[in-house]
Amino acid sequence: MSEPILIKGIDFFGVPLWSISRLPFIHMLEIITAVLITYFFLRWLDRVRERDAQTKAEEIRRNAEEQAQRLLKDADIEIKKKQLDVKLETEKELRILREELHERERLLNKRDDTLTQQQDQLKRQEKVNEGTQRKLAEKIQETARRATELDKLIAMQRQTLHQVSGLSKEEATRRILSEMEDSLQQETGALIVKHEKKMKETCEDISREILLSALQRYSAPHTAEATTSTVDIPSDEMKGRIIGREGRNIRSFESITGVDVIIDDTPGVVIVSSFDTIRREVARLSLAKLIMDGRIHPSRIEEIVLATQAQLEKNIQKLGEQAALEVGFPNMHERIINLLGRLHYRTSYSQNVLRHSVEVAFLSGMIAEQLGLDEKLARRCGLLHDIGKAADHEAEGGHPKIGADLLKRYGEPREVVAAALCHHDDFRVESVYTSIVAAADAASASRPGARRETLERYIRRMEELETIACKFKGVEQAYAIQAGRELRVIVSSKETTDEQAAKICRDIVTAFEEQLSYPGEIKVTVIRETRCIEIAK
């Protein structure tokens, strides 16, 4: 037996080759055959597994394709359904638009017919006006011709009268006018005395109407005189800080608040001027806060002003709610509550308008209760009669019209709107509540202590009353008493009669109404007496 061949470094399945080389050759062939069979079996097994994997992958791919096809079909069906819904909705909107267009076309056709009819009526009216103008022109010519003839006749009559009487034109005119004046004075005075006597006899029957109409007649319009506010400063050095470098602080303050700041030589005072009372109050409070804080620059000014505005708006709303609750109307419109609060910062002859409105409300309720009318409605009319004063700086027109428009806009009753519009007798009074409010307004304004005046204006008004009264013939002396609410006039008993004294009293009242502007009413009393003096010796 030959020696086995040893090959170093080579082994089969972990068996060193040198150990195999020692086996017999047959055994060696068996081992190689087994190895080859095992190798080919493993290769076959791998191919079988690969075919199974490919089969599964094919099946998964096929299932995925089928599922994708189903999803595509479902999506296509959903898209078609949505397209159909959109189409139906679009058709519905188009149908609605067509109906609206048809309706508008019908309205336009109707308006066109109306305009055509109006045009025809205007043409007919123009023809009538042309005929009327021709007739008027003819009548004017006829009147002119008759006036010329009348002037000729009057001239002839005058010439005849001059020849008969032997008086000149001036002498005859003066004599006739003097006689007519004496006669008219006596007749006028007699009529005044007669009607006053008749009025006293029938006053119990018509007391309600007399009370309302008399108080309404003497009510006077209100005007606010205060347009400035003063702010105290600790020293004149603060004026320079308020002005700022090159005036930037004062310009910024005036721009943000909308007021005028007046800094003059008056020591310790800065003046804030504006016709808008709310703006002026915001500016006054803001300036006082800035002076107290000490930091005055544009950004700080804007911050303080905004905070003050917010605080003042809350205060305005609170004041309006308190006034409405006091009168008995807690659930009024929020805007009307705000306007009532703004009246707290408005004055009329130094009288606070909000307190005046509350007082008028209570007076109106009392008058309505005595007359057997709706007390609650009268109080509402009285409370809101001056509401236009809170917005008269924001709109054109007087405060009655502005207030009536606001009340009508916020759904107030017709009587309340009429009271705000007509309480100053600017329009025809159609509601008894308007007369009640006018009477209460006059009573509130004319009560003692309700309004204040400066000493200079007070003295000037006293002098005007006495001067006007002394201009009438027969007046010897005139005295203004009761703070200008009453005038005592003493007339000469030799130059006047009782009838003439009554006429003088009426003429003085008329002169006051035409020439003066005053709050409340003025009572005029004319005194005529005859004194007989004898001395016993």
How would you characterize this protein structure?
The structure is a single chain. By secondary structure, this protein is mainly α. The chain is 67% helix and 7% strand. It has 16 helices and ten strands. The strands form four sheets. Strands 3-5-4 form a three-stranded antiparallel β-sheet, covered by helices on one side. It has a three-stranded mixed β-sheet with strand order 8-9-10, with helices on one face. Helix 8 packs across helix 9 (334-342). The protein is elongated, with a radius of gyration of 53 Å. Mean pLDDT is 79; it is low at 1-13 and 210-226.
**What is the SS-derived class?**
mainly alpha
**What is the overall silhouette?**
elongated
Helix run count: 16
Q: Helix proportion of residues, in percent?
A: 55-70%
Unreliable stretches: 1-13, 210-226
Largest sheet: spatial strand order: 3-5-4
Determine the mean pLDDT: 79
Characterize the largest beta sheet: strand count, sense, and whether it forms a barrel.
3 strands, antiparallel
What's the count of strands?
A: 10
- The H/E string reads EEHHHHEHHEEHHHEEHHHHHHEEHE
SSE inventory with pairings:
Blueprint: E1 11-12, E2 15-16, H1 17-20, H2 25-165, H3 169-201, H4 207-217, E3 228-232, H5 237-243, H6 248-257, E4 260-262, E5 269-273, H7 277-293, H8 298-327, H9 334-342, E6 347-348, E7 351-352, H10 353-370, H11 375-383, H12 399-409, H13 414-422, H14 432-446, H15 455-470, E8 475-481, E9 486-491, H16 498-515, E10 523-527
